[in-house]
Amino acid sequence: MSETIFTKIINKEIPADILYEDELALAFKDISPRAPIHFLVIPKKPIATINDIGEEDREVVGHLSWVAAKVVSELGEAEQGFRTVMNCNEFGGQTVYHIHLHVLAGKPLGWPPYTEKLKELE
Ligand code: AMP
After folding, report:
1. pTM for this predicted structure
2. Pick from 85, 68, 96: which is nearest to 8 by CA?
């Protein structure tokens, strides 16, 4: 797959506000936060969309949720609650084609998450 901006963040070619890193995953603050706390958890392996997750990726994809909960807990938001979201393709609102778990916290979150941009696609 073609390289995205997230590969550059993994390779430290561009800066990011990194919250957690290990051999499989990286968590960093979203550059355009939609909540008081908004960070992304990505696999270091580039996988374009949820549709491209292979059987061999089960461990790393599960690991993303573990990292999300760990970082939220360290930020003191676990008990109050939070949301994880992974968008897929155009109708899902995906803009960066390297899978990423959005983690939003710090305020009550509306449901469903509905934006004007998505409304246009209906
Ligand atoms: P999505 O629209 O689900 O593909 O989400 C992509 C997310 O990546 C958006 O919330 C962007 O604000 C975020 N993003 C894009 N570029 C950067 C960057 N350089 N650093 C941090 N977050 C970014």
Report:
1. 0.94
2. 96
